[in-house]
């Protein structure tokens, strides 16, 4: 009987591997290094070796494995084709076929890391109990994942949920990493909040903010805002305004039951959520106004859970 | 054998009924009046009578009818509950159950009119051949429908595809019909284009535009723009700019293969499409840039086709 599966989250520096029972219980989790040299040619082989060792150690046969779910840092089409995982050095190929061929023909399902993290949160995290959620990950960049009826919405080119690159501001002079100007990521990511803070500091004299100077972080801004610092509150509201409006755009398109906010920036917690909610409720179509907004709960394990969910759910 | 179905599009003044073979062929189509008095209590009975007469006239038995698809002007949940069809005078009830009970227990599937029109265009119109489309209907208001894997995306409260109420402009002083300020509908509907034109005329002296004065229509604006009138071109670009940006928001969320633009305003044709495409390509996430943009093809029949598709497809 097929009782187990693997959930794997491949990042640019480490690969997280989870060994699951098919009821969703995590039996073990560990990390290996992502070897990106030579166009990442060792990555899949390293994964196979890790899985193989695990099975030997546990005395579990291949017949007992339902499959392998894998989350990857790049667009993944519905058929398992990765278009380009820049951080891994990979080009375009069908990763589901390839990994399956390399690992005894076992079923493999692949997804984009942000989408897979969303699926993880929908399954076991902040989105538990909801069928339709949108997850927004506020980290160095802004990622997103759309879950409809418990499944990832991939989009035609794997671009669904790429809300970090939603155009939020005309006339922005600085360029986003994607090459455009005025993307959500430029205001709502950790680096985005720092940009907003520096702009504020250049235009206003705020003693507390200025103490941090060039080295100010998003966390500093939120901490000061919580203490009641006016400048920091203004910056937080600017950020929340961009994010809340982006959420209202998303809601007018897919009308989710809940938004789940994760990533490092979300550590600002309920304070940030409240600011974001204000703009969301003010700008969203009324029928979408009762969408819940929760913090993510699985942290860095979301992708590992979501990858397992690709197989189990 | 079940060979036939009905596709019904219920509007505030008329009800369009299509009699289909299950291969998609339209055998007949006709209209009846929508009797909205007494909270629209006659509407379903009138429909039943029309269908009954048709079956008698054609000598077709109930056993040969696969089902009835019905599009309605208001939110419809996945289980067939209408939340409120203001234009019909209806409150909240399960229209699928009710109509089925009234018509010999035959299967009924209901959908929101804009969503159903989108399904119709995806099946037999401008979106034929695509699985994932977003339809945008530019009429008196702006409606939308999202089709994923050939199926309507309803959203949690039936609010998916309500893109007419996507917040596009901060600081808008006039109120949208929905009660908010700055919705897409305020700039991209027929009345929205007129608003933009009046604002332009108030701020600029343009002989050609001024000839139309208070009675200017969206069509007048587009006709003048096609003739090269500078003011009309500016207004058209403003409108196209709002719509193109809204499309880029939609794309960052669901990444469709194609956008289908319909409704009275879309009669401006390829000229308008080109203007909209320019903004879309400039603001969308690059992976979404190759989405096709087509004009709708079914006109007022889109809802009737889409309703039939609820049953057949």
Automatic annotation (TrEMBL), chains A, B:
Keywords: ATP-binding, Kinase, Nucleotide-binding, Transferase. InterPro entries: ATPase_NBD (IPR043129), ROK (IPR000600), ROK_cs (IPR049874), ROK_glcA (IPR004654). The keyword Kinase applies. Its EC number is 2.7.1.2. Pfam families: ROK. GO terms for molecular function: glucokinase activity. It is an enzyme of class 2 (transferase). The keyword Transferase applies. Belongs to the ROK (NagC/XylR) family. This is Glucokinase.
């Amino acid at each position: 009987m097929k009782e187990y599966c693997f959930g794997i989250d491949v990042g640019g520096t480490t690969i997280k591997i989870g060994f699951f029972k098919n009821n969703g219980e995590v039996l073990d989790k560990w990390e290996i290094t992502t070897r990106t040299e030579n166009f990442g040619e060792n990555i899949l082989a390293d994964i196979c070796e890790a899985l193989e060792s695990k099975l030997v150690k546990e005395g579990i046969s291949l017949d007992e494995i339902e499959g392998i779910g894998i989350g990857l840092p790049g667009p993944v089409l519905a058929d398992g084709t990765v278009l380009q995982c820049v951080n891994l050095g990979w080009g375009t190929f069908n990763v589901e076929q390839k990994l399956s061929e390399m690992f005894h023909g076992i079923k493999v399902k692949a997804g984009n890391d942000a989408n897979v993290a969303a699926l993880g949160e929908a399954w076991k995290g902040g989105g538990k109990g909801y069928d339709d959620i949108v997850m927004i990950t506020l980290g160095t960049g802004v990622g997103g994942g759309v879950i409809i009826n418990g499944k990832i919405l991939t989009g035609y080119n794997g671009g669904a949920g790429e809300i970090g690159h939603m155009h939020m501001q005309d006339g922005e002079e600085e360029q986003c990493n994607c090459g455009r100007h005025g993307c959500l990521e430029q205001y709502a990511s950790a680096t985005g909040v720092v940009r907003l803070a520096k702009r504020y500091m250049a235009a206003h004299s705020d003693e507390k903010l200025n103490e941090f100077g060039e080295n100010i972080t998003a966390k500093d801004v939120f901490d000061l805002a919580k203490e009641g610092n006016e400048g920091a509150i203004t910056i937080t509201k600017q950020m929340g305004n961009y994010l809340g409006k982006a959420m209202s755009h998303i809601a007018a398109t897919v009308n989710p039951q809940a938004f789940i906010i994760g990533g490092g920036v979300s550590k600002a917690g309920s304070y940030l959520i409240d600011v974001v909610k204000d703009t969301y409720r003010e700008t969203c179509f009324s029928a979408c106004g009762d969408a819940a907004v929760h913090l993510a709960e699985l942290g860095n394990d979301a992708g590992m859970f979501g990858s397992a969910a690709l197989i189990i759910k």
